Amino acid sequence: MNTGASSGFAQDIDDLWDYQQPAESEARFRQALAQSAPRSEYYIELLTQIARAQGLQRNFVAAHATLDAAVELLTASYRRAPLRILLERGRLYNSDGDRAQARPFFLQAWEQAQAADEDFFAVDAAHMLGIVEPPDQQLMWNLRAMEMAEHSANPRTRRWLGSLYNNIGWSYHELGRDEEALVTFEKALTWRKEAGQSREIRIAHWCVGRILRALGRTEEALAVQRQLAEEWAATGTSDGYVDEELGECLLALHRPDEAAPHFTRAYELLSQDPWLVANEPHRLKRLATLGQSPPQN
To answer: Global pTM?
Structure first.
C-alpha cells in the first residue's frame, strides 16, 4: 500500500479538522479553498471536506450539493479526490440515518482504494463498513481495517488504530463479548496514551469504565468515572457522558438520590447534541426522568 508519497496535500487537509467544531472547520476549509487552484485535485478534496463539515452540522442538502460540485470537477488523472467523494457521500447518508444507501459508497471506496494502493482511504472505508454493516459483519470489517493499519508503513494510516480499537471494542460489546471488549478498550487506552491525545485518552478511559459496569464491576466503573469527572473539571469543563455513567453506576449501587443530580446534568449537556436529539430521544428522555424522579429500591 501507498506509504504516503502522494499524501502531502491530504495531510494538510486533515490538519485543518476539528471534528468537535465543524462550523469552524468548514470556515478553515473555505479559506484554504479560496487560496487554491480551481479544478485542482487539492481544490476538489477541500470541497469534500466542506461537505463533511456541513454534514456534521446536519446540513445534508447543502452537503450533497457540495459533493455534486466536486464530482463535476473530476478528471481521470485524479486518485485521491474520487475516493474522498465516495467516502463523504457515504458518510452523509449514514449520518442522515440511511445505512443501506451509505453502504455501496463505502464498498466502492474500499475496492477503489485498494486498486489505487491508497491504504489510508482503504482503512477509512473498511472502518465505515464496520459501522454500517449488520452487527454480525461489523466486527469482520473492523478487524480487517485494524490488520491493514497495524501493518501499514504509512504513519497517517496507523493513526486510525485508536479509533479502530474503539470500534472493535463496541462491536464485541454489542455481541455480548464484554471480556474481549474490555481487553480491546484497554488496548485503545494504551494507544491513546502513547499518542499523547488528552481528550481521546479520556474517551478511551470512559469506554473502559463503561464496560466495567457492563461486567458488573460497578465500584471499579464508578472510580473510573469519578476520576474522569475530576479531569474534566480541571480543564474548566464537564462531560455529559461522564455524568450519565456516574448516574448509572450509582443507580446500579442502589444510590438513586446521589445519581439524580448526575442524570440531570447529563441531560442538560447531552440534550444540546443534535445527533443525540435526532437519533436517541429515548435515551435523553430517560436521563430527564431519572434526574427528576429518582426511583426508589
So the answer is: 0.83
